[in-house]
Amino acid sequence: MRKWVERAFPGPWSWWPVTREVLGGLVVCGLAALLQAADSGGWPSGAVVGISGVLFLLRRGLPGPVLVVAAAGVGGPSGFLPLLVAAGYSAGRRITKPWHAPAYFAAGFVLNLAMGVLQNRRDHFPLPALFGICVVGYLLVGVLPALFGRYRAQRSALLDSLRERNEQLVRERVMIAHQARLRERHRIAQDMHDSLGHQLALIAVHTGALEVDRTLGERQREAVGVLRQAATGAMRELRQVVGLLREDAAPAAGGVDAIDRLVESSQAAGTQVELRHEGTPRELAAAVGHAAYRIAQEGLTNAHKHAPGAPIVVTVRHERDAVIVEVVNGPGGDGTSAVSGGQGLTGLRERARLLGGVVQAGGLPDGGFRLGGRLPYASDGALAAVPEDEELQALADRLIGPEKRRRSPALGCALGAGAVLAVVGVVAAVGILMFISSMRDATVSTKLYDSIEVGQSEEAVNGRLPVGSDFLTGEFKQIGPPVPDGAHCRWFAGDVPSGPEGNQDVVRFCFKDGVLVEKQHFQGKV
Q1: Which residues neighbour 263 within 8 Å (Cβ) at sequence distance 6 or greater?
Q2: On the chain, which terminus has fewer CB atoms closer than 10 Å, C or N?
Q3: Cβ contacts of residue 331 below 8 Å, gap of 6+?
C-alpha cells in the first residue's frame, strides 16, 4: 500500500512543492467552478471541482491515466478544461518512454471524441463540426501543453548535463593548474638546492681551511670546526629534502645576465631579436634572477612557436623597487596555431607569486603578443599576492562563474502555463466568434421568412437572404418534404426554439427558372 501511495504522490514534499501544488490545485478548481457554472450540461459543479482537484494531485505520479481521464472528461462538462491543460503539461514532462506518450494521448483523444458524441445528443452539432472541434480543442488544450512540458523537461536535462560537464572540466582544469604549480615549485626547490648547496659547500671548504690554520688559537679552531660541521650537516639535510627533485630536471640556467645568451641563441637561429637594457642594473637575489631568466625564456619560446619569423623585442628594465622583464613579438606565422600545453604561463605566475611579483600576458591590437613580469629585487619575506586556494577559486569563477543557486523552474512553468492558457483563450474566443458569425449567416428569422413571397425573382430573394453555411446546414437536406422537380434549394436554420424532442428548426427556399417556386418552414431530426 505504501508503495502505491509513494508512486501516486512522489516527493520531495518540502514547503515549496507543497505550496506549489496547493496553489495550482486552487487555480484549477477555481477555473473549473467558473466554467462549470457557465455550462448547462447537467453535471454538478461540486463533483467536477472535486474530481479536478483529486486528479490534479495525482497528475505527477500517474500522468498517463490522469491525462486519459481528463481528456474523456472534457468531452462532457467544460469544467474539466483546466485539468486537461495541467494533465497535458505533466504528461509531456514526465512520460519519457518512447511509445507510452503517443498511446496515452491517442487513448485520450478516442475517449474525448466518444464523450463528445454522447454529449452531442443534447447539442445537436453536425458530426463533421463535432469532429473538427474535438481535434482542434484536443490539440490546443492537451497536446500543446504537453509539447511545452516536453521542451521544458529536455531543456532542464540538457542544462543539467552541460552543468555537470562544465563542472568536471573546471575540476580538471584546476587539477592541471595545481600540477603545473607543483612542478614549478619543484623547479624552485631544485634552484634552491643548487644555489644554497653551492654556498654551503663554499662555507664548508673555507671553514675546513681555517680549521687547519696554525695561526688560530685552540678556541678559534674549535669554533671554526663547529661551523664546518653545521655547514656540512645543513648541506646534507638540504640534499635529503630536495635532492630527489634533481632526477628529472636540469640545473638552474642563470639570472638576468644569462638573458643575453638567450637572445644571442635566437639571433643565431635567424630571428630578428632586439635586446634592450634600461635603468641602472642592481644585484638580484638568485631566485629573482632566475625568475627573470625564465620569463624571457618563456616569451622567446612562445614567440618562436606561435609567431615564427616575427620581430621580437626583449626589454630588461631596472626600476626603483623592481625589475621588469618584457618580451613583445609582432604578428607573424602562417595562421595556424602550434600545439601548446598551456601550462608555461601558469608556472611563471606561480614562480612570480611566491616571490611577491606578478606576470601578465595578452595579445596586442596589431596581432602581436606581450609577456611581461614584475619582480621585486629582494625575495626575502615576499608574500603571495593571492593565496593558492583563493586563486584556484578565482580560476573556477572565471570559467563557470560564482556558484549560484539554481533558479526554481516554478516561475517558468507558471509563465508557460499562463502563456498556453492565453493562447488557448484567444483561439477559443476567435473560434466562438467565427462560430457565432457562421450561425448568423446560416439563420433566417421568422419575420424575414414571412416577408418573402413565392413568385419573387431568385435574384431579389437571394439579395435579402444571408450568405448561408453549407457546413452547418448540409445535413438539413436529409429531412423535410421532397424537393420540387427541376428546382434547386437553399437551406437555413430557423429561429424557432427546439421542441422537447430536440427537433431542428429548418427553413428552405426552392428556385426554378429564376423564380422562387416554394418556401418551407419545418422541424425534424438531423
Answers
A1: 273, 275, 300, 314
A2: N
A3: 307, 310, 366, 367, 368
CA 372/CA 359 separation, integer angstroms: 6
Give the separation between CA 399 and CA 173, rounded to whole angstroms. 9
**Residue 93 corresponds to which cell in the numbers above?**
514532462
376 and 321 Cβ atoms separated by less than 8 Å: yes
Closest CA to 193 of 252, 253, 255: 252
Confidence of residue 316 (pLDDT cuts 50, 70, 90): very high
The pLDDT of residue 512: 92
| 275, β-bridge pairs | 314
Q: How far apart are CA 446 and CA 497, in angstroms?
A: 11
User: Of the spans 39-48, 111-120, 407-416, which averages the highest pLDDT?
Assistant: 111-120
Could you please report the per-residue DSSP string of 491-522? EEEESSPP-TT-PEEEEEEEEETTEEEEEEEE
Q: What pLDDT sits at residue 403?
A: 45
| Count of Cβ atoms closer than 10 Å to residue 516 Cβ | 20
- β-pair partners for 444: 494
- Of 357, 356, 359, residue with least CA distance to 326: 359
The alpha carbon of residue 2 and the mean position of all alpha carbons in its chain are separated, in whole angstroms, by: 37
In terms of pLDDT, which residue wins out, 280 or 39? Answer: 280
Spatial CA neighbour of 314 closest among 334, 303, 152, 306: 303
